[in-house]
Every structure is written in structure tokens, then in C-alpha cells.
Amino acid sequence: MTPLLWSGAAGSWLFVAVFLLDGLTRPGYHPVRHPVSALVLGPRGWVQTANFLLCGLLVTAGALALPGATGSTALALGVGALGLGLVASGAFRMDPMRGYPPGTPDTTPEEYSAQHQTHDWAGMVVFLLLPGVPFIAVFGLDDPAWRVGSGIVAAVSAVAAGAFGHLWERDAPRTGLVQRAAIAVSLVWLGCLFAWATT
What we know:
Elements: H1 2-25, H2 45-63, H3 66-70, H4 73-91, H5 114-140, H6 144-170, H7 175-197
Helix pairs in contact: 1-2, 1-7, 2-4, 4-5, 5-6, 5-7, 6-7
């Protein structure tokens, strides 16, 4: 099961690395304001679409090995659902809005497409599980240090995810920055959890 666990670690870390690098180098894209999901739009959109799909599948595959490695079926189910949420986020993309891709009106559409609405549902699952998975780990792991660390990650991610939702509704200037914090904290932790589970 060790290869599956390393697959999960790779998927967790790679997802963060790709959206950070792509966001910093994408013409017309402002990572401090725009959400990660907007990276699926435009000529280079295939990069983030592939990131969602590949990394989501790798995280889901890693979840298959977690019951035996950690003794927690609940943790494995949470991680598996998070991975599938990432896959669905890539399969259904958000609508152009708020100035991206370049040439798009700098406003929020009054109505969303069915694809965007499905993307939003997938995103809701992801943003519930970003703090939810480490919260499950608090009760599902035996190692005291990991339980404390998981609790801290759950709290930080929950605050960041909640703040992102509030900022998104207002189209605040730092919406993308706060969203990235919520994602990165949890997925870096998850990658470390997968790596730790191999020992």
C-alpha cells in the first residue's frame, strides 16, 4: 500500500505547487484576487483542469491505503471524498467573471451556467473537507503530536475557508489570497499525513 500513500502525498503537494506557479505566471490573472478555479479558463486553462483531475485522482487513490495505515476508516472516507471533490471541480469549470480571462466584464454574472453551479457544489464539498479531514484526524489518529497538529490545521483552515466565502460574496481584493491559504494549509498537511503513514 506504500505506493498508494506516496501517490496521495504527491497529489496533495503537486496540486498546491501547480496552482501557485501557474497563478503567478498567468498573463492577466491576479492570484491575490482571483480564485484558483479561474485558472481553468483561458488558453492555458488545461493546466489547472489537469491539476484538478490528476491530483484529485492521486488523493483518492491514496485514501484507499489509509484504513490499513492509520486504522481510521472515517479518515480514509473523508480524504477520498476530498479527492473526488477535486476531480469534480476540474470536470465542471466555473464561468468567466470578474475580469478573467482578460476581456471578461469585471462583474459577477446575474445568472450562472449549470456547469458553474455544479462546480460550486463540488467546491462546497472541498471547502467543507479541507478543515473537516484534519478534524476527523484529531479523533482518528493515535499519535498525540499528530492529533494536536491536526487540530491546529483544522482550526486555521476553517477560519480561512469561512473568510474566503465571505470575501467571495463581496468580491474583496484579497479573495484569492485567503482561498489559497485555506487550500495550501490543509493539502500540505494532508501530503505530510500520507508520507507519515508510510513509516
